[in-house]
C-alpha cells in the first residue's frame, strides 16, 4: 500500500511540474553583435553568439526556442517530455547538466544559472547552441556521431566565441582544461575515446568520473583534430551524417585517418601530460 501511495504522489508531482518559460530566438547574422560587456539577457546573448559563429566560424545559425525551467526537477521532467529521455537517463542527465541542446530547442535548468555571470552564461549558451547546429548540419538528425566529438566541438566553438567577444581567451580556456585533465590523471580512470562514443556511455562516465574524464579529454581530442585538419573538417564530419550513419567512414573521410588510429594516438599523447 505504501508503494502505491508513493507512486501516486510521484505521478502527481510530475504532473504539477512548473511549465518552462519559452523564448523564441532568431538571430540576425548580418548585424553587428551587441557589446559583450552589455549582454544582460538571453536574446542579446544569442545575438552575439550567432554573429560570431556565422562571421568567424562559418557555421549555420538556425532559429531555436529556449526552454527555461525553474529548477532541476522541472528540467528533468522537460528532458522526458521534450527530448523523450528515458526516466533514468533524464535523472542522471539532470544531476549534472545545466542544459541540453536539441534540433529545434535548448532546454535549460535556469535555477542552476541564477548566480552565473553573463560572460560565463554566454559561454554555456554557445556550447548548447553548438549542439543545435550539429543537428542542423546533419539535417536534423543525431545519427551515430561520437558523443565525445559532439561535446568536444561544442566546447571548442564556445571557447572561440567568448574569445571573439572579448569575454575570455581561448588559450586560457584550453590551459584550464589541460590543468583539469592533468590533475585528475593519477586519481581517475580515463577511458579510450571509443568508450565515450554513445550518449549512455557519456552519461555513465560523466556521472562516475567527472568533467575531467569526459569534457576535459573530449575538448583536448577535438582541439588536436582541429589543429591538424581545421575546424571545417569537424563541420564536414557532422554534415556527413545527413546521408550516412557509418561513423567510422564519416570520421575517416572528414579527418583523413581511421578513428581507431586517432584514438591510439590521442591516448598516447594524453599520457604525456603526466
Short description:
With 274 residues, this protein is of the alpha+beta class. It has twelve helices and four strands, in the order αβαβααββαααααααα.
Describe this structure in words.
- The chain is α+β, with helices and mostly antiparallel strands.
- The chain has one domain (12-271): Neutral Protease, domain 2 (Orthogonal Bundle).
- It contains 12 helices and 4 strands, in the order αβαβααββαααααααα.
- It has helices at 2-15, 42-57, 72-82, 87-94, 118-137, 147-164, 170-184, 199-209, 212-229, 231-239, 247-255, 259-271; strands at residues 21-25, 64-69, 99-101, 105-109.
- It has a 4-stranded mixed β-sheet with strand order 1-2-4-3.
- A hairpin with a 3-residue loop joins strand 3 (99-101) and strand 4.
- Helix 2 (42-57) packs across helix 6 (147-164).
- The longest helix has 20 residues, at 118-137.
- The radius of gyration is 19 Å and the shape is globular.
- The termini are far apart.
- 39% of the residues are buried.
- The model is unreliable at 4-14 (pLDDT under 50).
Amino acid at each position: 500500500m505504501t508503494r502505491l501511495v508513493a507512486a501516486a504522489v510521484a505521478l502527481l508531482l510530475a504532473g504539477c511540474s512548473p511549465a518552462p518559460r519559452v523564448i523564441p530566438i532568431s538571430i540576425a547574422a548580418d548585424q553587428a553583435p551587441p557589446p559583450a560587456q552589455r549582454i544582460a539577457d538571453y536574446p542579446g546573448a544569442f545575438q552575439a553568439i550567432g554573429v560570431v559563429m556565422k562571421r568567424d566560424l562559418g557555421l549555420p545559425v538556425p532559429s531555436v526556442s529556449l526552454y527555461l525551467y525553474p529548477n532541476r526537477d522541472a528540467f528533468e521532467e522537460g528532458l522526458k517530455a521534450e527530448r523523450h529521455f528515458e526516466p533514468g537517463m533524464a535523472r542522471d542527465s539532470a544531476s549534472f547538466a545545466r542544459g541540453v541542446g536539441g534540433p529545434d530547442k535548448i532546454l535549460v535548468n535556469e535555477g542552476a544559472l541564477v548566480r552565473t555571470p553573463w560572460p560565463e552564461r554566454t559561454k554555456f549558451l554557445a556550447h548548447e547552441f553548438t549542439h543545435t547546429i550539429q543537428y542542423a548540419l546533419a539535417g536534423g538528425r543525431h545519427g551515430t556521431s561520437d558523443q565525445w566529438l559532439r561535446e568536444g566541438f561544442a566546447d571548442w566553438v564556445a571557447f572561440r566565441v567568448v574569445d571573439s567577444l572579448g569575454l575570455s581567451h581561448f588559450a586560457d580556456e584550453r590551459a584550464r582544461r589541460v590543468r583539469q585533465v592533468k590533475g585528475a590523471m593519477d586519481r581517475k580512470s580515463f577511458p579510450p575515446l571509443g568508450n565515450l562514443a554513445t550518449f549512455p556511455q557519456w552519461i555513465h562516465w560523466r556521472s562516475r568520473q567527472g568533467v575531467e574524464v569526459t569534457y576535459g579529454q573530449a575538448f583536448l581530442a577535438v582541439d588536436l583534430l582541429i589543429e591538424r585538419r581545421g575546424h571545417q573538417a569537424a563541420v564536414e564530419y557532422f554534415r556527413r551524417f545527413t546521408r550516412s550513419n557509418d561513423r567510422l567512414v564519416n570520421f575517416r573521410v572528414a579527418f583523413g585517418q581511421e578513428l581507431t588510429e586517432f584514438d591510439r594516438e590521442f591516448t598516447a599523447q594524453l599520457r604525456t601530460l603526466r
